[in-house]
Specification:
With 423 residues, the chain is of the alpha+beta class. The chain has helices at 46-53, 66-72, 98-111, 116-134, 137-150, 163-168, 171-181, 197-208, 257-268, 274-282, 313-330, 334-350, 355-369, 375-383, 387-397, and strands at residues 5-8, 14-19, 25-32, 77-82, 87-94, 187-193, 230-235, 240-248, 286-295, 300-309, 403-409. A hairpin with a 5-residue loop joins strand 1 (5-8) and strand 2. Helix 10 packs antiparallel against helix 11, helix 11 (313-330) crosses helix 15 and helix 12 runs antiparallel to helix 14. The longest helix has 19 residues, at 116-134. The chain is globular.
């Protein structure tokens, strides 16, 4: 369906070309295999801060808004993102402006000057972003849940960092961090859209030949230890409680991940999932309820997230637990499993119609796992999942020693939850 070519340069830089029929756009995505999990506590937040600084001027485009002016002039979509294990920079353009896309993205990636005066200004912007997340409980709850799971180690820290660290990071920190983490063996360049593989390859060679050569560090292993259910309640004056109830699960290399994804879909994927019908339609407890799995390099978890009426939050947790217990005890039916497979298949295909989505699909796999599965290969792995696989995963992860609950809302303590949190 989508043929791709992978190129590994002598210096270790990886490139992926995904020509597409029927589109006039081109997306260039550059990924670095580093993020907040690669930080130490004294520079926590630097990966994300650096991502902002890359747009503040280069040797070729010294003005802080030069980059934006050039890209806006051709109606480009562009942005960057930082996660725990990767950082990405992308531009999507009308393909006739592909040289501009390459020129700008390679320029910010290779020639950013990180001006001191812009660092000072951007501190305020980042602190504003941290405040925004603090004021958005639906977003903040995810950070709180990971803090509960992983505690005081990189996997448990916020990507944006802490304000006192953001205030103290200096230019030398950025230079040292780039020198260590932005090297050829950790970089993946993805080109997707209206371009031939040959042309894409030429452009990557032309624009990215000066990526600093070298290896990149690996993150410290994530340490997990838990023997009983854990609860974290964060007091905030909100109109509803936001909760994540979850369980420790598998990393992105574990063959059980396919069954885990399907289990999450059956429980909380879409408006006809078990949890949606029970929590929203039957009990009227809240507006949103969903389940998903989050997979990292050496750890992962299953989660159910919801926003519920504060007066009925214990009832909601109880109702979610009841659904988890039911699926653990009885498994699922064949038609439910098939529906989940079709749901994921349809959603995946809908999500891969645009060049930027396709670039992410291939690039994220490559930068994290050094390997790429095509859409067809992913579907094939998913299709092999049996009813027994689903039941085995439910029995394996739905145990007291894996269970965690994070809550944000106007609650003073965790009283009322302890008795509910047990399988």
């Amino acid at each position: 369906m989508h043929n791709f070519t992978k190129d590994v340069w002598p210096n270790g830089l990886r490139a992926i070309y995904v020509p597409m029929q029927g589109t006039q756009t081109l997306t260039l995505l550059v990924l670095a295999g580093t993020g907040s999990r690669y930080e130490t506590k004294d520079i926590n937040g630097i990966s994300h801060f650096l991502e902002h600084m890359f747009f503040k001027g280069t040797t070729k485009r010294p003005g802080k808004s030069d980059i934006a002016h050039e890209l806006d002039a051709v109606g480009a979509a562009y942005n960057a993102f930082t996660d725990k294990e990767l950082t990405g920079y992308w531009v999507k353009v009308d393909s006739k402006h592909s040289d501009l896309a390459f020129d700008v993205v390679s320029d910010i990636f290779l020639n950013s000057t990180i001006p001191q005066e812009e660092i000072e200004k951007e501190r305020g912007v980042i602190i504003g972003e941290i405040d925004m997340y603090e004021d958005t409980p639906m977003r903040k709850i995810g950070d709180l849940f990971e803090e509960l799971l992983y505690g005081d180690q990189p996997a448990g820290w916020d990507i944006a960092g802490r304000k006192e660290v953001i205030r103290s990071i200096n230019r030398q920190h950025f230079i040292d961090y780039m020198d260590k983490h932005y090297r050829s063996k950790g970089v993946v360049v993805v080109v997707a859209g209206n371009i031939t593989a040959e042309n894409a390859k030429e452009k990557v060679h032309k624009y990215f030949s000066t990526v600093k050569e070298g290896d990149v560090p690996k993150p410290l292993p994530c340490v997990e230890s838990q023997s009983a259910p854990q609860i974290k309640v964060f007091y905030k004056e909100t109109d509803q409680c936001h909760i994540i109830l979850g369980a420790r699960a598998y990393n992105m290399f574990d063959p059980r991940r396919w069954a885990l994804g399907l289990l999450a879909t059956i429980l909380g994927g879409g408006m006809s999932s078990r949890l949606f019908i029970r929590i929203r339609d039957e009990l009227g407890l809240g507006y949103y309820i969903r389940a998903s799995s989050t997979l990292s390099l050496d750890h992962g978890y299953f989660e159910v997230s919801s926003g519920v009426d504060t007066a009925r939050v214990a009832e909601a947790v109880e109702a979610i637990m009841a659904e988890l217990k039911k699926i653990k005890a009885n498994g699922v039916e064949e038609k439910e499993l098939q529906k989940a497979k079709d749901f994921i298949r349809g959603g995946t295909l809908l999500g891969l119609e645009a060049s930027d989505d396709l670039a992410s699909f291939f690039g994220l796999q490559e930068v994290l796992t050094n390997d790429v599965l095509t859409v067809e290969q992913k579907f094939s792995m998913m299709d092999k999942v049996t009813l027994a696989d689903i039941k085995n995963v439910a029995e394996d992860i739905f145990q007291d020693k894996n269970l965690n609950l994070a809550v944000i809302g106007p609650l003073k303590d965790k009283a009322g939850f302890e008795g509910i949190l047990k399988f």
